[in-house]
Structures are given as structure tokens and as C-alpha cells.
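Shipment paperwork, digital attachment
Item: protein structure file
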Amino acid sequence: MSRSSRPSVRRLVAALVVAQSLGGTAALAQYRPPPMTESQRLVREAEAAQVDASSAATSGDKKRAEARYRKALELFEKALAEDPGSVPAAAGVGAVGLSLQEHELVAARLAPVYAAHSDALELAYPLGISLFKLKRYEEAVPVLRQVSAAGQPEHLLVHYYLGNYYALLSQQGDEAVAELQAYLALRPEKIAGNDFQIHELLGRGHLLRNDPAAARESFERAQAGRPESVSLQMGLGAAMELEGRMPEAMALLEGLTARFPRVPEVRERLGRLLLESNDPPGAEVQARALVSLGGTPAAHLLLGDVRMAQGRPAEAETEYREVLRLAPGDVGAQISVGMALQKQGRNEEAISFLEGAVQSGANSLELWSTLGSVNRRAGRYARAVEVHRRVVEMAPQRAVGHLLLGADHFATGQWDLTIDDYAQALKLEPEHAGAKTWLARALAHRARDRAGSGRVDDAVRDLRRAFDLERSSAMARRLGAALLQQGSHTEARKVLEQGVQLPETAWRDHLLLGYARLGTGAAKEAFAAFEQAGKMAPDSAALSDVSAGLALAELELGQVDAALKRLSEPGASKRAMEVARANLSRAHLRRAFARLEAGDGAGARQDVEAAERAGVGGGSSELGRLASFTKALAQAQEGRFGDASAGLKRSLTPMPDWARPNTRQLADAFVLYLKDQLPQSRRALTLATKRPIPEQAQWTANFTSALYRREAERAYATGNMRVAEKALKAALALSPDNVALQHNLACVAYRGNKAADAVATWQRLEGSIPQATLNLGIDAQERRHNVGEAVDAYRRYLAAGGATRAASVREWKDRLQMIYGLNEAASPSPAPSSATASETTP
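Attachment content:
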């Protein structure tokens, strides 16, 4: 039996995890920082002016504060002009620009710098705030999310802005609640008096989350100790509605109408609830009172809805047209006029009116939906289908369009189309009750028609019904085999696991179960099923079939050599030989991936060549392109970057089915890393991970850590301790137990006049990493002038063996002993270490 599924994407992504290439961290040479650039000098002057401005503002001298802030902004802008990529200069422009409310300027100056340094919170915070203030929400929200995720107290306002956005603009309840709770956790006690605003927004967020209990609690906390607020009380009413406590909600609103008789929102909501509760007379009272308050569009719309509920569509039409007079183009009123006309039997007028509305530019989903439904009720089915296809285009991720198309096709008895429509609706909204009901009815109609014409259901449906009626291992085997052929591995596994528990189970039941488990990614359980099949196999041909299945399970378990051995010797079974032919090249590619993970580029290339000899279907086939992709990665590890780039382009253009959307960017980032082009590699990685893919998370973290380490080494080598420290800390956050990173961060601390901290770290790491011992000796010799301790440290370092600086250190030790007359002494040998770090010299 051939295995039909493509190679696992998870395994393909693992091809990029090249542990040896991401390798050890170089220990850091220690240099003094270089002189300041002109941009850095201007930044320093600007920071001094900024501090002066802050002091003036604190003392109440607003005029001086304004002047000094303007001076600081001028200097920061000059610094940024000198060095357009300077993060400190751009951050200064942002901070001072916010103080002066120069949001346009901040957005313009910071955007290009942030694009190159998207991990810099000091840029993200002012840029996000400025974009938000400019109401450029689509640009602002992703930036503010990045700042919010850091959870820094100084960025408190970001949580408030995002909470407002989610609760009031984008209607995202979970996100709103998360941001507002983060605000409450971080806000200082001295501003707790304004928490009522946050709790009201939290209530709105909980309503969006359909959590009435939490919403009620938030609204009550917002209301406590303050004069009665209409908006808060209406929020409490909305919570009651969610809980199904309609009488209590209406009673609360009625009380509000008595205490706040001139607040229209209360009467409108009460009128709507009365209509929903089938109380048109009560709703009419509220609608008339609402009209008397000012005759707003909302008032006439409510009164029109009341008239429709009372069966008086002509009067309703009058009210709806009044809404359109007051608010031309109101989509809800246009829909209502059309419905009122239809209710009066004036179908052609209704269609003409709604057609006019959409042609005038009203692009509402509800309006198009109503137009199509009115056409269907008028018997104009072709136009109904045409219009409802437009609804599908307008809302491709919602079920509504497919439901309407289903109703159109149902009305004309086109059962295949009807079933397709409702199946698509269920695919988009799996829990939609209407879609389930009408799909079931359409299936019943089609079953009746097919039975009348003598047509039989397909094999899977027949077998599923058969298995419902007859729970036998033979029937489970047939249904399981059909489902496997269909690619429904999960359902096949469920059926076959029931089948092997039934009497008269045969070896083939376990064989099929093994393949079903393989298809669901359960390789260990699949191996057990194949082993059980082997125990029951009646002859050598059956054993060959089982061996082929075991080979595929071994591949998934990472036992590639064992799988290759089985596939190279398939035995006499025709089915086993088919499996071997279909999977031998894939097995070689799998081993190539494993060798890439181990940093063995040459070995990986050899396996690719073996896969090509076994047959990959040509360079344009999916498997052939996978082989080219693997070979390109191997060439990159061998330093053949030109060949690697060309191979990646060929294998990923156009994007094959086995690749993920970001595979090309990830591969490019990896090749750039190997070429030591770190900024370009980071940009490619950032582009690739804009939309994270869960199975790539670990590799992305490893790669990010490697970039940080390499950046730290570069910064240290040029004397930029600030950047080196930042990069090392970022790398340590991803790998907190990495002793080489801890060691190198201590080197940075040493150069930052924190010798005691660095020495403490080296003493802790001694025995884990030889360079720690070497640095202890250098410190003892040059800073503390303790020659004896230095010589002892050099002895311990040499005793560790295998140190790359051994010759130089032996010379230092011998000279010190000769100069100071110290005797040779044996030092205990430390335990061998697997940590990798290059030497550190004073």
C-alpha cells in the first residue's frame, strides 16, 4: 500500500534547524569604546536639554519647559539627520515630540527608523501613540501591541488606548479585557480615582465576550460611589439581557425612563426589548415618546418597526421614508422600506427600490441580502442567485451568503447545489444551527430523488451506514480502507480501533490501523499496530507488507537508517515493493534533513543524490523540488552560497504544496546568517514571522538567539558595550542556562566597571567553561596585581586541556613564575566541559 500523504511540513521546517551552524558563542575580546560620532554628541546635548525641560515642567515654569523641549527636539532632529538610522536620536524625537504633541512629526520621523529596528520599544511607544492620536489605527495597533506585550509600567497608557480601541472601535472583547486588566495591574495607586472609566470599558469588553457576570461586576464597580450614570445602568441592563433576564432588564430601563425622561437611548433600547418580547403596544408607547423628544431617525425607525410588527406595513413605510428624509442613504431604513413594500404585495416596487439603493452606492451586506431574498420571494430566482453570490464575495468568511444561496437553490429543487451551499456555510461556521437544519433537509430531498431514479450512494456513505448496522471487524476493515483511500485518516483510525476490538480480527485490520495512525501523526502507536500485524501475519508476503508499514513508522519516529534498510529490501510482496518505490527517495531526503540538523552538509548532499537516483519524478515535480530545496540547504552549509540561493529560488518558485508561506524567507534568512549578513538575515526573519506558525516557534527562537549572539560578538569587538549587553540579555532570555552567554555577559559587565559582578560570574562558571578560569587569571594579574592567584588560574586553565590559547597562557605563566620566583605546583584538573567559547584576552 503506497503512502499518499506529502512529507510533513514539520519535518521540512526542521531541515533549517542546523544546530552546529548556529553553534557556539565566541568569547569576547575587551576593548575601550570608540569616540562619539557627531550624531551621538548631538543626542547627548539633546538629552541634557530634555532633562532641563522636565525639571522646568515639574517646577511649574511652562514657558521655559516649552523652550527647552523645543531645543531638545531640534537637537534630536539634527542627530537623526546626521545618522538616519540612529535609534537613540529617533527615540529622543519620539519622547520629546509626544511631550509637545507633535504627532505628525513623530510619525514621519520614527517610521523609517522603526522599520529597521522593529524590536526597539523606545521607538515603538512614541510611534504607536502618535499614529493612534492621528487615528491611523491600522498602523498604530500592531505597534502598540508590541509595546503592550512587553508589560512595562512606563508604557501604561498603551493598555488604555488599546482597551478603548478593542472595546469601542473594533468590538474585540477578549483583547479589550486583556489590555484593560493589564492597565489596572500596572497603574500607580495615585491615579486609582479614575478607575471607574476603566471598569466601564471592561464591562463593555465582557459584554462582547458574552460574559454577563463579569460585565455586571465591572459596571457595578464603575458605578460605586458616583452619581447614577445612564451609560453604566444601560450596561447593567445589557448584562441582564445576556443572562436571559429580560423582565429585569426592561424593569431597569423603565426606571431609567422615569429618572432620565429625556435621554433617548434609554427609550430606544426599551422599545427594542418590548418588540423582541412581542409587546408592540408597549413598544409603541416608547417609540411615540422618542419621536416627541426630537423626531430623530432612530425614533422613526423604531416606530416603523412597531408598525410592521402590528401588521401595518403601509404606515411602516411612511415612517421608514421619514428616516430616509432625515438621514439619506441610511441602509437600515432602505432595507425596511423594501420589506414594507413587499409586505404590501408590491414586489416589483420593492425590487426596484432596493436595486436603486445598491446602485446609488449603498454597499451593505444586509441590503444585498434583502434584495436577493425579495427577488426569490417574487420568483426571480436567477437574479436572487446573482445577488447572493455578491453577498458571498462581500463576506467570504461568513456563512450568510452560502445560506442565502442554499435557500435560492432549495426553492428551485437543485439539491446538489443546495448541499454544496450549506456544506460551505458549515465549513465557515461549524455550529450554525440553520445551516445544519437545511443541509439535513436538502440531503433528505436528494436521497428521495436518487432513490426514485435508482442511483446508489457512494461507497463511504454506504459503508458508514453498514457499519452502524453491523459492528463487525470485516465491516470496520472495509470502511476503514475506504476512508483511508479518501484521506479521512482520523475517522479511519476511530473506526479501525473499534474494529480491532471486535471478534475475528485479522492481521490486515492491524495493518490498516497502522496506516490510519500514521495519517494522524501518531507514529509510535502506528508502529505498535504494525508489530501486532506482524505477529498475526500468515505468510512471507504478509510479512513483507507489514515490514513496509514498519518502515514508514520508523521514518516518522526518526529511525531513518532502519527504515532505509527495510525499504531497500521490500521482499516479494507487490504491495510492499510499491510502498518501497514510493517512499525510498523520501526516506533518503528525511535522512538528509537529519544530517542538516547535525551540520553535516556534505552527508546531506550525498543523501539527496541517492534520493535522485531512487527517483524523484523530475526537477519540476513536488518531490523533485523538495530534493532541490534540500540540496540547496546542504550547499549553503558547505559555503556554496551562490549555488544555494539559485537552488532555493528554483525549488520554491512557484511555491510548492509542501512549503509554508514563509519557507522562502526562512531559507533566505538562514543563508544570509551563514554568510554573516546579520541585518539582512534579521529582516528576512522578521518578514517570515510576521504571521507566526506554531510549529516553527522553537526554530525561530533558536535562530533569533543565534542572531543575538552573533550581533553581541560584533558589538563587543567594536567596543559597543551597550548593544553587546542588550543582545546578550536577549539571547539569555531565550536560553537562560547557556553558560557561554553568561560568561560573555560578565565580560561586558567587566568592561562596564562592574568587575566584582563579572568575577563572581566567572567563579561560578569555573569548571563549566575554561575561559572563565582564564579571565579570573587576567583579572588577578592586571586589576588586583595578585601574581600568585593569576599563576594558579593559568595553571588550572592549562590543566583543562584543549584550550586554543594554551601556548600563550603557558608563556604568561612561565614568565610570571620566573620574574617572581614562583614554584610550579600541581592544580586539580577540572571536569571536562562541553561549553564552547573562544578565548578572552585582556
